Amino acid sequence: MRQELLSLPKTLAEDVAKNLVMVAKLLDEEPERAYGYSRVALRLASRVAAVREAAGFAAYAVGKYSEALAEFRASRRMTGSVELWPVMADCERGLGRPEKAMAMAGEPEVAKLDKAGQVEMRLVAAGARRDMGQAEAAVVTLQSPELASNAVHPWTARLRYAYADALLAVGREAEARDWFAKALEADQGGTTDASDRLAELDGVEFTDALDESADDEGDAEPAAAKAEDRDAADAGAGVVDAAVDVADEDAGEVAEAGRESDEARADGADEARRDGAEDGEPGKG
């Protein structure tokens, strides 16, 4: 890839490299974001095989199998490499064409794959068999020297896991349990959920100590009752407050009326005194 990028202008090469780094970084955990970065890289340098391959894997990760297949084919045309053959076959499965994937498993390109690629092709072929309803054939497809070997390779856990799953699909539960255990033994990177499958077969249920959902459900009715009580109390308090407001208003009106009456009486008395004073003045003279 480095050689391909060196053929680009320096600034462009740097931009493309940054986007490809982000694709690789985000592909497993945030595939949608990885896909976005791959589209940017593709717009910048669509003639670079590494960019087409990265775009293919990003599209594959988000289930855009038709798009992924087109990008893988473009990369293969540019490089002549067969290493993408298994994932191209798996794209055919994703598109609902398991027969096409099985046909690819029998092509001469498979013989050119390294050991990891051949194991990957076997996994894809077994998946295609199951897609076609051929569960027993899927079991046979996975039986191989690589499966029988005690050596542990990066692909060993996935191969053993697939075989265990295929055995379980045909009702061979005891054998499936043994192979899930073997898969777990080889799964140093945690690439499978073999431990969960073993627990499921053994009838073990895990309970989260921090899960308070059961308590929440148990308290739902009392909590509702308490809420209703609070609402009723609030409503009662509102009525009381309203009554107090009315009483205060009435008292204010009464007090105001009393003040007005006192003022009227005082005005009347003053007026009477003035009238009396006026009547007495001539007698004095």
What features would you describe in this structure?
- The protein has 285 residues and is mostly helical.
- It is 76% helix and 0% strand.
- It contains 15 helices and no strands.
- Helix 6 runs antiparallel to helix 7.
Give me a quick take on this structure:
The chain has 285 residues and is mainly α. 76% of the residues lie in helices and 0% in strands. Helix 5 (65-79) packs antiparallel against helix 6, helix 8 (115-131) packs antiparallel against helix 9 and helix 11 runs antiparallel to helix 12 (173-186).
The amount of beta strand, in percent, is under 5%
Structural class: mainly alpha
Largest sheet properties:
none
SSE sequence, one letter per element: HHHHHHHHHHHHHHH
What is the number of helices? 15
Mean pLDDT score, rounded? 81
Task: Give the strand tally.
Answer: 0
The termini sit apart by 134 Å
Rounded to the nearest angstrom, the radius of gyration is: 43 Å
Q: Approximately how much helix is present in the residues?
A: over 70%
Low-confidence stretches: 218-266, 271-285
The outline comes out as globular
Which characteristics define this entry?
285 residues; mainly alpha; 15 helices; disordered C terminus
Reconstruct the topology from this structure.
Blueprint: H1 2-6, H2 10-26, H3 31-44, H4 49-61, H5 65-79, H6 85-94, H7 98-105, H8 115-131, H9 135-142, H10 145-148, H11 156-169, H12 173-186, H13 194-201, H14 213-218, H15 220-284
